Amino acid sequence: MTEKRAQWGSNFGFIMAAAGSAVGLGNLWKFPYLAGKNGGGAFVLIYLLIVLFIGFTIMLGEMAIGRHTQLSSFNAYQKISKKWAFVGGLGVLAGFVILSFYSVVGGWVLNYMFKTVIGGIPADSAAYFGSFISNPILPIFWHLIFMAMTAVIVFKGIGGGIEKACKFMMPALFVILVIICIRSVTLPGAAAGIAFYLTPDFSKLTAGAVIAALGQVFFSLSLGMGCIITYGSYLGKEENLAKNSMIVPFLDTLVALLAGFAILPAVFAFGFEPGAGPGLMFVTLPQVFAQMPFGTFFGFIFFVLVLFAALTSSISLLEVTVAYMQDQHKWGRSKSVITLSGIMFLIGIPASLSMGVWGSFKILGKNFFDFLGFASDIMLPVGGLLMCIFIGYVWGIDKAIDEISNGGKLPFKLRGVFTIMIKYVAPVAVIAVFLNALGVF
Ligand code: PHE
Question: Most buried pick, 154, 301, 373, 390, via CB within 10 A?
Fold first, then answer.
């Protein structure tokens, strides 16, 4: 059965949904710890440059493909060139892979949210985290709840589900984030954290750090896997793509930067290490909250904030795969949502178990959870690279620009910038980063 193609209720709704997709665990969990590990300000600077030059262009390109074809990623590529449909297919697969492990981490957030209020996180937060994620039952229970919440929202469709949820959760998230930032930077001793965050230490800016920054831009902006193509396909012809593709990365970057201000000064104020890695949120922060006046309250609203961020992203990942089933296989929304979220829940189970009882099962030297992350880290830049080649050399800059300008005028010099970025700078940058990762230079 085919259902009539939905549209966003308003451009604001689209912005909240697209920014919701972008703002997620990537901003709140990964960005602060990557900055913590890779020389603070130096990493932040390189991240900003990549967003400005590459992130923005790819986002605009994806919006153009989606709105032009009014189709989700696989069918969008296919409509323009049959041979390129595989790029869209790769994106759908990436959505599958990412949501399977993303939902496991979403489950951890739910657990921490409840645990903060009921009983509190034990003082030895490292031991607690270790025993929680390696537990064979509890994380899977929370993973199920998180996936079910995601499915319920996507089930309700574009306007009544995704848009409505994001219009509530995104502003709420922002308010909570600002409250926590103010708390964090006004703690005695916070200045050291602010200095660390803002002072670039270029000696730590290794090739590895640059690659991490590039991967992080793709992940954080939800690029390279057709998410923005899919969301763009629900956008009306009258909306201004150039403006939208600046607002969304701006909001995403703002939240990532604020997340650093919310977390790093507090970490320093209580004498913890900023380079704790993935454990920063789940191990260090509970100890920070435990020492803070009204820590239970701040800890709770912090995990609510993370939950909102994670949910507005997970629904976009599910939507990519659901829209594919609708457009390509003519499945109805309910059947697609139930089947796909069910399969992703199942794939998430071994991912969760790989942090405990199945830890010895390795693919390419990684446990299953890390392997899924590794796959997506590669798939997104590859997807972005192929998209640039596709627009620059297959679909053609002129057609893309036609869609972006919609017959009207373009902002100052956008055509030139877009052309150079899509055809040369972005592809070369992604390839260089890969060759570097492979040790070629
Ligand atoms: N951007 C999301 C985050 O930062 C993750 C995501 C990646 C969502 C790709 C959709 C597509 O957490």
Answer: 154
